[in-house]
């Protein structure tokens, strides 16, 4: 009986030890499977991230026409679409012509040069200039004789020695001489000849052509040796500091426009750059041909790249909505999803970009609202142009064609 009890106890102990061993083995198997799953997941994420990275040589950016920049804050709310061109007020444009014809002796500027008001920009010569100076000196010398004759006959008339007719003739001659002298003097001054220097014996054979305003030389119609006629245009000078927008607003929209409204606009030749302006005046005349009213807007900020006569596409903001925006060329689309490229690392000769998913919003004037799924630093640098080519390069690397 005692032996049976001992055998039974031993059997129970063996069963208990077997159960513990199976439990430990099961836990080890579970841990192994979880570890393998985590490793697979981590490898998958790293593999997925690696597919979204593209590395380039810095010199490739120029070859592929890729540009980088930052996010812009643009007002893409409700707007009124209008067209127009860049204009200058008439007092800030000057057509320079010759008062008296002459041969071009010298041209001191070229197109694009900045000139100050009163600056000499050319020289004209003409033998008539010498004759006009001689006539002035003759008139000045003659006026002295006429003045003395007039005073002498005035005194003789008081004494009753001369007739009234003789005195009147002397008076008329004196007044006529004064008029001729003043007219000759004014003409020489208009021509830019110094009368005081002339009275000291300095006769010049050429006269200066001066700029009537400050600004830039936009057009030159003369060259050395060319004879210019009076009132013939020689130069065109513009002061772009007062460049503004002249926009046409149609009849049905004029009630939506008022002074003080903000405007965003771009050049038709460069739609990727956005400028800002503000309406300062509305025209009071209605153009019956176009059924439009002229609206004038002052440009805000720098005028770099803007020239009078350029055509613009503008948006008058009627309801504000400021958003983060990027140029349309910064986006790529794949399988219904939108992406942009963010700069990650940059060295002296290499640069690395990461392709991230984003959401797109409203679009206008070549820009589109961008909504980031994950927060990015405020100073993040992104690809603003050439994202399509960068994406193609990334796909090329994925297929192993790195050469």
Key terms:
alpha+beta, 403 residues, conserved putative lor/sdh protein from methanococcus maripaludis s2 fold, Elongation Factor Tu (Ef-tu), domain 3, 6 helices, 4 domains, elongated
Number of helices: 6
- CATH class bucket of the largest domain: Mainly Beta
Distance between the termini: 87 Å
The helix/strand order is HEHEEEEEEEHHHEEEEEEEEEEEEEEEH
What is the share of helical residues?
Answer: 25-40%
Characterize the overall form.
Answer: elongated
Number of DSSP E strands? 23
| Main structural class | alpha+beta
The biggest sheet amounts to: 7 strands, antiparallel
What does the radius of gyration come to? 43 Å
Which residues form runs of ≥5 with pLDDT under 50?
A: 1-48
Q: How is the quaternary structure best described? A: single chain
What is the architecture of the largest domain at the second tier of CATH?
Beta Barrel
Name the CATH superfamily classification of the largest domain: RNA polymerase II/Efflux pump adaptor protein, barrel-sandwich hybrid domain
The CATH topology assignment of the largest domain is OB fold (Dihydrolipoamide Acetyltransferase, E2P)
Strand content: 35-45%
Tally of domains: 4
Average residue pLDDT: 82
């Amino acid at each position: 009986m005692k032996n049976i009890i001992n055998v039974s106890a031993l059997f129970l102990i063996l069963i208990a030890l077997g159960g513990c061993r199976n439990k430990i083995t099961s836990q080890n198997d579970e841990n192994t499977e979880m570890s393998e799953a985590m490793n697979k997941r981590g490898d998958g994420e790293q593999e997925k991230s690696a597919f979204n990275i593209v590395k380039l040589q810095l010199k490739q950016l120029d070859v592929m026409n890729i540009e980088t920049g930052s996010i812009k804050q643009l007002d893409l709310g409700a707007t009124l679409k209008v067209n127009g061109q860049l204009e200058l007020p008439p007092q800030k444009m000057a057509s320079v012509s010759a008062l008296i014809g002459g041969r071009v002796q010298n041209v001191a500027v070229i197109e694009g040069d900045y000139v100050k008001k009163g600056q000499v920009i050319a020289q004209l010569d003409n033998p008539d200039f010498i004759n006009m100076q001689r006539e002035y000196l003759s008139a000045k010398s003659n006026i002295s004789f006429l003045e003395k004759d007039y005073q002498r006959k005035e005194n003789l008339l008081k004494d009753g020695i001369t007739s009234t007719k003789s005195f009147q003739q002397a008076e008329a001659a004196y007044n006529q001489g004064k008029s001729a002298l003043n007219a000759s003097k004014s003409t020489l001054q208009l021509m830019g000849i110094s009368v005081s220097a002339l009275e000291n014996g300095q006769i010049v054979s050429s006269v200066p052509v001066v700029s009537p305003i400050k600004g830039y030389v936009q057009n030159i119609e003369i060259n050395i040796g060319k004879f210019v006629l009076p009132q013939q245009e020689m130069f065109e000078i513009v002061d772009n500091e007062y460049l503004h927008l002249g926009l046409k607003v149609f009849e049905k929209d004029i009630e939506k426009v008022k002074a003080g409204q903000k405007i965003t606009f771009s050049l038709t030749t460069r739609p990727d750059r956005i400028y800002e302006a503000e309406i300062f005046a509305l025209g009071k005349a209605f153009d019956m041909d176009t059924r439009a009213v002229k609206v004038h807007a002052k440009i805000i900020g720098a005028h770099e790249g803007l020239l009078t006569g350029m055509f613009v596409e503008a948006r008058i903001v009627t309801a504000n909505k400021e958003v983060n925006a990027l140029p349309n060329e910064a986006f790529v689309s794949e399988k219904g999803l939108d992406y942009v490229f963010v700069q990650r690392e940059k060295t002296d000769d290499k640069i690395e970009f990461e392709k991230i998913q984003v959401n797109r919003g409203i679009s206008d004037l070549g820009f589109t609202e961008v909504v980031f799924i994950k927060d990015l630093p405020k100073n993040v640098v992104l690809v603003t142009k050439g994202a399509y080519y960068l994406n193609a390069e990334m796909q090329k690397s994925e297929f192993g064609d790195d050469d």
